[in-house]
Amino acid sequence: MNEVAILAYDGCWAMGVFSATDFFRIVALLEQHLGVPQGYRARVLSIDGGPVQAASGHAIHPDAALEAADDCQLIVIPPIEGPRLAAGFAPDARALAWLAQCKARGARVLAMTTGACHVAAAGLGRDMLLATHWAYTRLLNKRYPDCTFVAHSSFTQAQGIWSSGSLGGGFDALLEMLAQDQGDRFAQLCATHLLVSMPERLSPILPGHRNHRDPVVLKVQDWIENHHRQAISIASLAREAGLSERTLKRRFQLATHLPPNLYVQRVRVDKAKKLLLSSGLPVKAIAYEVGYENVSFFIRLFKTQVGQTPAQWRDGASLPAP
User: Fold this and answer.
1) Fewest CB within 10 A of the end CB: N or C in the chain?
2) What distances in angstroms separate CA 166 from CA 32, 105, 144, 153, 195, one per listed residue?
3) Which UniProt keywords apply (predicted)?
4) Count of structural domains within the chain
5) Residues 190-225: pLDDT tens digits?
6) 227 and 143 in one domain?
């Protein structure tokens, strides 16, 4: 079983703490329904196990102290309240030492928005692209010059460290990890039950394709994911990126290990998976919703990528809400 440690500390946003606990509660309910063993145990931890005061002033009562999770496989760091960060907030040295030790043992780390300051302060983000809240990129880049902080609506990932620029990006990162651990189908089921957005608006689960440091390509990926229903050409992507078509194709392939046209196809198939799970729309309507007017082409494409037709995938993956 994967041990998940969610760090609670004075001034953190409670919604970051409990969005993670609720995510793994949904995972547990799906596992229970499917009759598979529980894959995760999520616990809220503080430095000494005592209560902490969230940014709202409410108390968070942790399950244990940090020392109880020295062998955890995933650490989730919620955001720090912005005004505290601007006033000079410095992560506790004990939390940083524990974080570095767990990372050295192979733990994955998810830092939500301003929580990325812990990664930087622990010396784990050197020469790394870290996503954070747009309002604090300049402050964090000045405070931690060995790291590069960027505003990003979803997340970045490198060397076992995920960082998100929004609360939704934190869910995106957790879904990517879930897909790596439990497979695409299970992660898609979880995504459709999150209740954070309409399923077709959720970011695609495409593990590994954001594991790069090219901010222009990340911007293009975001654009594709938000405009997948439109007719997308290399020329339109190049205009969005401010690059020549040749340069775009080269940089996109280098960063994502996919050509742009194939990435567009994978985004559309992912969106179709979510619609197949969450709606009763016929396959023809779903093909149109994700950007294909030719339903036969869409079915062939889906089967090539997934190994099943859309109807077969829907039948095999259907599940009532937990």
Assistant:
1) N
2) 29, 27, 20, 6, 16
3) DNA-binding, Transcription, Transcription regulation
4) 2
5) 888 875 555 555 667 776 677 677 889 988 998 998
6) no
